[in-house]
From TrEMBL:
InterPro entries named in the record: Cro/C1-type_HTH, HTH-type_regulator_Rgg, Lambda_DNA-bd_dom_sf, PlcR_TPR, TPR-like_helical_dom_sf
CDD domains, sorted: HTH_XRE
Molecular-function GO term, any one: DNA binding
Superkingdom, natural source: Bacteria
Protein name: Helix-turn-helix transcriptional regulator
Stored PROSITE patterns: HTH_CROC1
SUPFAM superfamilies per UniProt: lambda repressor-like DNA-binding domains, TPR-like
Domain HTH cro/C1-type per the UniProt entry, residue ranges: 10-63
Length: 292
């Protein structure tokens, strides 16, 4: 473990968010201790590093990776590119990146780095090859790389498990998908702190989608509303428009046109703020089709 690199990164992150050493140390340790950590003179206990990571807004594993992985910036850049490909649904680009990096020692010599590649390999195996069984096997192998029995699941492990549920849903295995999502929910609830708020939002949205397919409209709406409150509480607009639209869609399926129009109008407002023309045009057409 390279203590110096860890200390440097703590200092960089602290300065980036405008904290003094004294402010960072508050409730954790002394200002002098933070100074020594940043200089690489001492290495913090795991519990101290966890508290520091929470205050700096990063996963504690980030620091372990820094201390043990050379050229971490390169690994982070690959991870960023894969995340962009995932969000843009660019599965061919995802496959190209994974294929390029599979033989890179920075990845196959480090389980957490290897997990990134396996995770995205499972995604493109499903999306490009349409092979659910193979994709699920790959994703479960990815989870096993870092997960041990009786250990609290990491956010990444939870995200990978959530991906399996999405694949079940898209393949029409609704009960399997719902069981998967309930397991994900249990793992999220066991976390002392959630760094990526969007994981919970995404989970509740996906649960709502399954429940709608199962004709459980009321329960679906309840999950949507809870997710909306979560978004508002965390000042995060991720899926906020989709959640309002989904409630409207449920109302439409129940022939409650007035409520459907109300929620779709709220969704439209969100999408207009986000300048999402695709959804704006779609919802405008839906609203016009409703009888007044």
């Amino acid at each position: 473990m390279d203590f110096g690199i860890v200390g440097q990164k703590i200092r960089e992150l602290r300065k980036n968010i405008g904290l003094s050493q004294e402010e960072l140390s508050e409730g954790i340790c002394t200002q002098a201790q933070i100074s020594k950590i940043e200089k690489g003179d001492v290495y913090p206990y795991a519990s101290t590093l966890y508290l520091i990571s929470r205050k700096l807004g990063v996963d504690v594993n980030y620091f372990f990776d820094i201390g043990m992985t050379p050229r971490l910036d390169y690994v982070l850049e690959v991870g960023r590119q894969l995340k962009m490909a995932r969000r843009n649904l660019d599965y061919k680009e995802m496959k190209s990146i994974v294929t390029t990096e599979e033989e890179n020692p920075l990845f196959f010599n480090n389980k957490r780095n290897q997990q990134i590649l396996l995770w995205h390999k499972g995604i493109y195996q499903y999306e490009l090859d349409k092979d659910l069984e193979k994709a699920e096997q790959t994703l479960r192998e990815a989870i096993k790389l870092t997960h041990t029995t009786n250990k609290i699941w990491t956010e990444r492990e939870i995200e990978i498990l959530l991906n399996i549920g999405v694949m079940y849903f898209e393949s029409g295995f609704l009960e399997h998908a719902l069981a998967n999502y309930k397991e994900v929910k249990t793992h999220i609830e066991a976390l002392p702190h959630l760094n990526d708020y969007t994981i919970k939002t995404r989970l509740f949205y996906n649960i709502a989608r399954v429940l709608t397919r199962l004709l459980e409209y009321q329960e679906s709406n309840e999950y949507c509303k809870e997710a909306i409150h979560w978004c508002i509480d965390k000042d995060n607009m991720y899926l906020l428009g989709e959640l309002h639209y989904h409630i409207g869609y449920n109302c439409e399926l129940q022939e409650d046109r007035e409520s459907a129009r109300k929620y779709m109008q709220k969704a439209l407002t969100v999408f207009e703020l986000q300048e999402d023309d695709k959804y704006i045009n779609f919802i405008n057409k839906k609203i016009k089709d409703f009888p007044i």
